[in-house]
Design a protein that fits this description.
Its main location: membrane. By secondary structure, the chain is mostly helical. It contains 14 helices and two strands, in the order H-H-H-H-H-H-H-H-H-H-H-E-E-H-H-H. The chain is globular. The N and C termini lie far apart (51 Å). The mean pLDDT is 92.
């Protein structure tokens, strides 16, 4: 395996980490109207309980995106340039809504007013749903191919990205992250909220299973290989096992299988993409490939040694953080805390 192929795998690994971890963050944020009530019927204690499940880890999860973007820029500058210029508006919208979500987490508790908190809660929902949908649209289009000319420049419009396969990809990530997040709420809470989250995760899981099945079949048909077929089957099986585990009240297993579903689905997309990084729908000769989009061997060598040291440290720190904050967020702990916490 050459260094360019190795770094294609590392980029895939980083995006898997991001979608698995920030994916359930998105799902938790989107669950607020469904589990915490709406308007005058909203329960602030329940909403605080939901938000506190990801309070200690959401910002750490988002750093995977920063690392993935930085590594993409350094290892595949042509891919980075084409992606961020051609997909400028969707990626800008993702960035703005992520900022909106982060600000909402920090400012929600600064005042006790109901309208103040409800306003930031809406921003959390928007800041979770929009990226969850647009990431699926973006990756589906990358795999399907876009209009690249001979200079590797995207000559389409943002509306060209809103094609049936791209929109289906967005629907899959939106539903998958929502189900994954609600499962996490069930895993991390107690009492009525835990029971409500389990019921909602089961219903959302069934819808996700149907939509994801269509997307998986479409992807396997359009980009058939043994690897893509096996990964699609593993993703489907993991989702079924997650739904079944949740139905039996095994939230830990349900969450684990949900994470495996995202892992296999993202790896499947990268497998379908290989050896391209951005196929051209105008002429295959205009496609960006691992070879023509990568940095020099010297750059990749330096990055490889850096990754060899840094990645294990990142994984150890991430694991330690989740271990420290492994306990359930109980309703009693929220009721006993100050209202602004």
């Amino acid at each position: 395996m050459d260094l360019a192929t190795l770094w294609f795998g590392i980029i895939a690994f980083l995006f898997v980490g991001y979608f698995v971890l920030d994916g359930f963050d998105f799902g938790v944020g989107m669950s607020l109207p469904f589990l915490g009530g709406v308007g005058k019927n909203s329960d602030d204690v329940t909403r605080r309980q939901i938000i506190n499940t990801i309070g200690p880890v959401w910002d750490l999860n988002e750093t995977w995106l920063i690392v993935a973007g930085a590594c993409l820029f350094a290892s595949f500058p042509e891919w980075y340039a084409t992606l961020f210029s051609g997909f400028y508006l969707p990626l800008l919208l993702i960035l703005l809504t992520l900022i909106l979500r982060g600000v909402s987490f920090e400012y929600r508790h600064q005042r006790d007013g109901l309208k103040w908190k409800q306003g930031f809660d809406r921003m959390i929902v928007i800041g979770s749903a929009v990226p969850a949908f647009l990431w699926g649209v973006a990756f589906a289009n990358i795999v399907q191919g876009v209009a690249l000319d001979e200079r590797h420049v995207y000559i389409g419009t943002v509306f060209d990205l809103l094609n049936p396969y791209g929109l289906l990809g967005g629907a899959v990530t939106l539903l998958l992250f929502f189900t994954h997040g609600v499962t996490f709420v069930a895993l991390k809470t107690d009492g009525q909220l835990r029971a409500d989250a389990r019921r909602l995760a089961f219903r959302a899981g069934l819808v996700t299973l149907v939509v994801a099945a269509v997307f998986l079949v479409w992807t396997v048909t359009a980009h058939f290989s043994i690897a893509v077929l096996v990964l699609a089957a593993l993703a489907a099986l993991s989702l079924v096992l997650s739904i079944a585990s949740n139905l039996r009240g095994r939230e830990g297993w349900a969450f684990g299988f949900g994470a495996a579903t995202t892992l296999f689905a993202v790896v499947m997309l990268f497998a379908a993409l290989f050896p391209n990084v951005m196929p051209s729908t105008i002429d295959p000769a205009y496609s960006l490939t691992i070879e023509n989009a990568s940095s020099t061997p010297y750059t990749l060598t330096i990055m490889s040694w850096t990754a060899l040291v840094a990645l294990p440290l990142v994984l150890l720190y991430q694991g330690w953080t989740y271990w420290v904050f492994r306990k359930r967020v109980t309703r009693a702990s929220i009721e006993g805390a100050p209202a602004h916490a």
